[in-house]
Amino acid sequence: MLIGFDIGGTKTEVCVLDHSGHTQFRHRTPTPQTYDTFVATVADLIVLAEKEAGESCQQVGIGLPGAVSPATGLIKNANCTFLNGHDLQADLAKASGKTIHIANDANCFALSEAVDGAGKDGVVVFGAILGTGCGGGLILNQQVWGGRNAIGGEWGHNPLPGYTEEKDGPVRPCYCGRDNCVEQFISGTGLEKSYRIKTDKTLAAQDIIALMQQGDVVAGECYKQMVDQMGRCFAALINVLDPDVIVLGGGLSNVDELYRDLPQATMPYLFTDVAELCFKKAEYGDSSGIRGAAWLGR
Ligand SMILES: [Zn+2]
């Protein structure tokens, strides 16, 4: 049995996965807001999970929105800011007596889908989360490829390839300090921005998609523009990695038209005349993150 944790800003979830990928136990609790209580809570949850699973589990995986700095071994970029600057792996190992594996939550999503989800037959699998923002994780041979600097798969803050004002509208500043990061375009937030620029109206991404599906012209234009932007972004990725499968997660992954439109939108930007492109919807949806965290300990 494997134990996995999904750490969010407000909720912490634990699960026990058996080796065939079946969830044996799942439990959710508010995320403690100080470091010491957090470590103690995770250690308690491990004890609870083992009790519920009825056996001892040595391997514990933790998925969180952040990363372990390869330079220092300390947590960085976590949105649970109290984790930043701490040696979480060592502290949790000490508190629980377990072997602790930590990875970014986007990598956990991609790992779950690569091990036994939508990308399970692929050697190279890219998991793209197209939600509020735009995250990504790269899996090679069913292992997370974190990279030398722990930024493997982080494509959300690349500049949008082939940006022109004519095609993509006015420059979009990003909170990271740069302009025209891809997540400013190919995300739910990006689609909402495109719609606001064209109509001066604020509408949620899912409502824009619903309008597009009903034949609304402006919503259709925004969707088409986003699909072309996605085509450019995915082509840049495919020209380097040529993955077997690209698995989509996040809110936009529920837009069925994307699986029809993305291969065609990507093709013109690829350095090949023929290509077999495989875009798939995540099989485990919101559960991918926690499942992938558990798979870290395989
Ligand atoms: Zn950015």
Give a short summary of the structure.
The protein is of the alpha/beta class. Helix content is 36%, strand content 20%.
Detailed description of the structure:
The protein has 298 residues and is α/β, with parallel strands linked by helices. The protein has two domains: 2-110 and 287-295, Nucleotidyltransferase, domain 5 (2-Layer Sandwich); 120-282, ATPase, nucleotide binding domain (Nucleotidyltransferase, domain 5, 2-Layer Sandwich). The chain contains nine helices and twelve strands. The chain has helices at residues 35-53, 88-96, 105-116, 165-168, 188-199, 205-213, 217-241, 257-266, 288-295; strands at 2-7, 11-17, 23-30, 59-64, 67-68, 75-76, 99-104, 124-130, 134-140, 143-144, 245-249, 279-281. The strands form three sheets. It has a five-stranded mixed sheet with strand order 3-2-1-4-7, with helices on both faces. Strand 8 (124-130) and strand 9 (134-140) form a beta hairpin. The longest helix is centred in the last third of the chain and has 25 residues, at 217-241. The radius of gyration is 20 Å and the shape is globular. It starts with a strand and ends with a helix.
